[in-house]
Amino acid sequence: MMRKSLARAGAAAIVLALSTTALAACTPGEGAESGEPTNITMLVLGDKPTNGRLEAMLEKLNVKLEAEANANLDLFYVEWADWQTQYNTQLLSGDDDIDLITTATDWLFAWENAEKGAFLPLSEEMLQEYAPKTWEQVDAEGHWDLTKLDDGQIYFIPEDNFTQYTNHGFFYRGDWATAAGIPDGTITKFEEFTTYFSWVKQNQPEAYPWDVSGAKDAALIGYLQGHTDGQTIQQISAGNYYPFQTTESDPYTVTSWYMEGDELLEAAELAKEWNEIGVWREDALNYDGDTREEFYAGLSGADQHHTQTFIGSIVDNMTKKQPGSDPKFFYFGQENGNFFNDILTHGAMAVNATSKSPEKALEVYDIIRNDEEAYRLLNWGIEGTDYVITEDGKLGFPEGYDSSTDALGSNFWAGRMDDFELDRVTDAPNKQEIYDELAAAAKDYEYSTLVVNKDLIDPTLAAMGGVLSEYIPQLQYGKFDDPAAAIAEMRQKLEDAGYEDARTAIQTDMDAWADERGLK
Amino acid sequence: MVTQTSVGRHEALPTGSGKAVPTKSRKPLLRRIGDNRTLLLMCLPALAFFIVFSYAPLPGAWIAFTNFNYRDGIFGSPFVGFRNFEFLIKSGQLWLLTKNTILYNVAFIILGNILQIALAIMLNEIRSKYFKKISQAVMFLPYFISVVLIGVIAFNLLNYDTGALNALIQQTGGDPIKIYSIAGAWPIIIIICHLWQSTGYGSIVYFAAIMGIDNSLFEAAAIDGASAWQRIRYVILPSLKPTFIILLLFSLGGIMKGNFGLFWNLVGNNAALFQTTDIIETSVYRMIISQNNFTSSTAVGLYQSLFGFALVMLCNWIVRRINEDYALF
Amino acid sequence: MRYVVAAKAPRKVRLGRSDYALRGISYVTVTAFAAFCALPFVLILSASFSSESAIMRDGFGLLPKEFTFAAYEYIFRAPRQIIGSYVVTIVMTVAGTAIGLFIIAMTGYALQRKDFPFRNSISFFIYFTTLFSAGLAPTYIWVARYLELRGSYLAVFLQLLMTPWLIILMKNFVRSVPYEIIESGKVDGAGDFRIFLQLVLPMMKPALATCGLFLALGYWNEWYLSSLYLGSTVEFKPLQYHLYNIINTANALRNSVAGSNVSITELPSNTLKMASAVVATGPIVLLYPFVQRYFVSGITVGAVKG
After folding, report:
1. Chain B partners of A115 at a C-beta cutoff of 8 Å?
2. How many folded domains does chain A comprise?
3. More confident residue, B7 or A266
4. Which of B46, B76, B106 marks a domain boundary?
5. From residue A432, how far is each of A341, A413, A423, B278, C5 by CA, in Å?
6. Is the confidence metric ipTM above 0.85 for this complex?
7. Residue B28, pLDDT score
8. Residue A386 belongs to a domain with what CATH number?
9. Angstrom distance (rounded) from CA A294 to CA A310
10. Tens digit of pLDDT for each residue in B265-310?
11. Superfamily covering domain C77-306
């Protein structure tokens, strides 16, 4: 009798096991035996396109990759909804199905992740053997030093041969600025936006002067950049914030514009004024709409992002959707020339520490970065359906193409090359002028090779990040009745979090770095 | 077979294993396992579940004492002692989170139970079968709605620029209210949302308990000429006491936890409201999202567990002293 | 309908003034509260049938403004994603509820058996997990790194199989099964498992319905574990996580209707969110009346201790 019930229990257990394996079978399985092409998966950021164009492109690209490296490429997307969580948890999971990881030192925490061991250290021999072209090009320009930790190892490959300006600023409408009485409709000073915003508020009842959503800090940073000579050290972040600066006048002393000087207060007071004017939604912090689309729809007087966005999409979209709007770009630090050329690790490719075939991954990377045919496929898609080359040699789109639904979306932002790039028909007509103007005034970021040992200050930075994420968004939206008191409070809390210890630690590294180069 | 008779027989007859100590009334562990293997096997899947998903990750809490890196893993990463706790304590954040979490839970428990009991009693008074069924079903509805939506609805109702509430206030000639900037308003909003979500289904538990009350008690009360209020006071409420205490003790176990989804979807990253709305779980989640900070967040979690554990042990001890039957263990 | 009879019996006695007063208050309050509970549903439903411009202009209302099916047309024009999500969620909900319920019932039964010497230690072993948990990061590392479940539906499916609360609820319900029934089974020489399967289980329909509903709701409403363990690794996200994405990113919204060839500014994004919500919530709401009849007699909570 007992045997029977045992058998029943056993049967139940088997049913359980079966149903779980059935479910497991639905999940993506393993591939690749020896002889078969190796599957290489590359992590990119963005929403996975669903229009089938990506798959069509990959099919073609893989024919080439199979022939040249006996490998296949697949893309893994970290989607924009909760992308930071998704990116962090993906690395934390140690998923060995991912081989190549898109990273960046200024917005994807490349240094932190390298220190935490998420990336495979790349030996020179390995790079020379499996990614010879990439090795040679980066080496010729002496850029490998930009990717080394204090152990002297290379942790990622910089996108160092691609011109772009990702300096932030405001997009606004020239027609409205002219109507607001701003000379030439061109804003040249941060404070002039007060005039512009007030005019929009009074004369464009449909629109918010600047419809913005979520916890941002742009308005503060924009002011600080234009009114101090502070230069942010991009290697050190505290949460989403970059609290450590040097100044141009004293370039080897670490300080913080959140901690020193009156400019933060001035910025906060200006923000408070804007809030009172009603520049943004009262509940901007909780609002989650697509504000760029609202700018395109004439429902917002301004939008905020960087030069590349302005040249690549704002001008084109605004010209089409708001004819005569005369879109313009005011970049932060414009008034005093306090802005930088892009660092060369704004995009970079790392090899996953747990990758099963790092060599193959490098081989594939070498091809998609350096082979023009593969490069075009990956970045632009299939000629004729995804893109066309116009008679004047520009990159254009076929008839009936709608970028909001037909985009390829391969989002390869870690190895683009100027050599292969073409001007696009959607680019701003004055693209070159803008580049020239920026190139003439921009400073070079001096500290690219500075390596900060964060082991000891990690908890401090985390604590500071917590404090900043509490105060900065509220200061930016002018939500404190008494900004001065709030800033004092914030500074006290940053002190408590160990600001001074962190500053001293970074100063030590800075001193060593400067001494080594005979800079001080 | 583990029947009464077989148990008796086992005790009477010496067994082949020879491990049994005849003088002891308790049988050796192995024997007890053998005797109860079917029942044990029946518990096995559940035990396996809790071992795999609740107990196995526990040692991982060690991460709170390290400077974690992926390469060395949880146990290989450098030990840093209590450094991850330092700022949490120094900044007073831990205190704020503890206070908020506990106060919200206390409000949820007290108001929730009062409302649930009141509704259950009233439901019991309703005669129409269809009315009762339909109203029960409707009150259960909020439990089906995802918290993600509750956040969206709340924003649509409460926001300053286009919210329905402010539209109504303006129509009646009042000044609109900046609800998303008033930290003081949110405890009320969150409590209302929580009650809205949970009262319907919670009241059904009590309603079932009222249904289970012996009819003779009601009859006796009626014969004694008790009014409706006296019936509630002397018959219904005392009968609900065991249910209430069990539910209470169970919710005490979760007093350091929170309705994360609700808080997160209502408040999100709006730091202006953190003073009154930040609870342990939202804070932990934010640390992981925006700071990639697995160590401090675990430190908070560890504190949460220890504090909650001590609290429940204390409450259980008190309950046990008052009435042992009601103690959880 | 055992409870209806039970409820009627004592009321045969004549009613006093206070009884009528209480009854009046009850009708009014219950109606008011039910209306309060239903309100957001009405808002969502009416918004989903309103025109986008009316919503932008006047906000939500109780009745649809400028009635239209536009939002639903968008959803069902490119229904692949939502159908995929439905299939995933339904499979998980059905399989998870069935398996979870069976395990919970089995455990609840064993723990309630007075002659089972380990029942107190096992009860505590289970209850302890509500008190002490490792926390988000260690659990994540364990499940994703060691069990290698990231990107697998199993990560979500398995973790929702049971909760301590449901086991204790079940255990208390088994208590109401007369012990004589178990005894009689034993006398007939049935094994413990057979007693459970053939004698006890059939008597537990209300408890199974109750716990089953809780389990099913857990699966149906799940978005959080999906966001942690699935992210974008799976082609079809569980329904509520899909909805979460739609609500939180304009891009997901655009992708959800991709192929319908509209740019985002022309999309009725507010009404589309609400229509997606209706589509994602509707079916489980419709399921409720079928479970309800078991419901009231189901949830009786006795003592937690054995």
Report:
1. 69
2. 1
3. A266
4. B76
5. 15, 21, 10, 49, 85
6. no
7. 81
8. 3.40.190.10
9. 15
10. 899 888 889 989 999 989 888 887 777 778 888 888 888 888 888 8
11. MetI-like (1.10.3720.10)
